[in-house]
Please model this.
Amino acid sequence: MQTAIDTIWVEDLDGNNVELLSLYNDQNLLLLLYNNQCLGCTGRAIPLAYKFQNMFQHIKVLGIHSNFRSEQVTKADITSIFTTKTLPFPIYIDDNHKVYDRFKSEGTPQWLLISKDKTLYRSIFGSQANAENRLLYALESLTTEV
Model:
């Protein structure tokens, strides 16, 4: 069952509030909910998101760092996990894990595939082979409906 979504509020890396569905209107979105401290996220999920970004031109990949701690995460914290110190795709902050909770995430990484008509097409947990296969199938299915 697909669920309609009206808004997704996050912060950009400069601390400004951003509503993603308005900013990326009429685009299929692959949201990666992750945390910098999660080795599966930084070692497998982020490279996988980059791979999907290159494979599927009709999908906009966005990273969302879910903040589970009370301390603030900075732009430097986010870019520190990348060897080039540049972002492979836009990354936002989910302060106090509100987006994470809203979508009943099972852990990090959590993938949210949102169709351009603003419905949650798939929600998939993990970065191992089974999750990768399920994501690939969902991405292929969504892009054939374009």
User: Anything to note?
Assistant: The chain is about 30% helix and 25% strand.
